[in-house]
Amino acid sequence: AFPMLLQARRRGGWLRRPRCLCADLEQLPLRSCSVDLIFSNAALQWSNDLEQVFRELLRVLRPGGLLMFTTFGPDTLKELRAAWSEVDGDTHVSGFPDMHDVGDALVRARFGDPVIDVDRMTLTYDRVAGLMHDLKILGAHNVTHGRPRGLTGKGRLQAMESAYEKFRLGGSLPASYEVVYGHAWAPEQRQEAGVTSVPIDRIGRASA
Predict the structure, then answer these.
(1) Are 87 and 159 in contact (CB under 8 A)?
(2) In terms of DSSP bridges, do strands 35-41 and 61-72 run parallel, antiparallel, or are they unpaired?
(3) For residues 102 and 113, what is the distance between their CA atoms, to the nearest angstrom?
């Protein structure tokens, strides 16, 4: 997201200003085997093809490189999803993969030694408007194929807020987050289309 990169550059100051690149997560404009470490924080869930993302991240990682990431699991924003389901049949909240599906996608992409964990947390709000405001600030958006294409009318928004009220507990409205943590390694040797790739620094001269 270009505005996020601008914010990152401003925070870096003049002496430690980071080098930024705005690009498609599924088609990175980086050379193969050019990156030692990838850290992805709350970004993978905005892709509709997680396995393609992992294949692309593996492509740019050097052999032995490390991928670390956080993403969201299916219980994330479950209250908001349920409230919208009482209003219409459209998809208003992105669907998030189960942690086991994330691990399987890593294996299919040929990452090595994947480790996946999950943590659950709940934020509380006085009104649904507070949650919607926070989601907007975070840049959260609906990327599902079944999302509504037009603007959400005031009537439907009010109906959703009314449906959300059934979750109110102790005077507050909950918003659930299921955070999936993971890391995996790029294999030292890669097998693609019957060809095994070995880093040149791993090739030694046989002893006589």
Answers:
(1) yes
(2) parallel
(3) 13
H helix or E strand, kind and range, residue 9: helix 2-12
Alpha-helical (H) ranges within 23-153 are 50-60, 78-85, 99-108, 128-138
SS3 assignment, position 125: strand
Angle between helix axes 99-108 and 50-60 (nearest 10 degrees) is: 50
Cβ neighbours around 166 below 10 Å, total: 12
**Which secondary structure element, helix H or strand E, spans residue 75, and what is its range?**
none
Radius of gyration (Cα) for the chain, nearest Å? 21
Give dist(CA 204, CA 15) in Å, integer: 42
Q: What average pLDDT does the segment 172-177 reach?
A: 97
DSSP 11-39: HHTTTSPPP----BTTB--S-TT-EEEEE
Closest CA to 138 of 148, 128, 130, 127: 130
Distance between CA atoms of 96 and 75, rounded to whole angstroms?
8
Positive or negative torsion for Cα 123, 124, 130, 132 = positive
Sign of the alpha-carbon torsion through 96, 102, 105, 109: positive
pLDDT digits (tens, 9 = 90+) for 54-96: 999 999 999 999 999 999 999 999 999 999 999 886 777 778 8
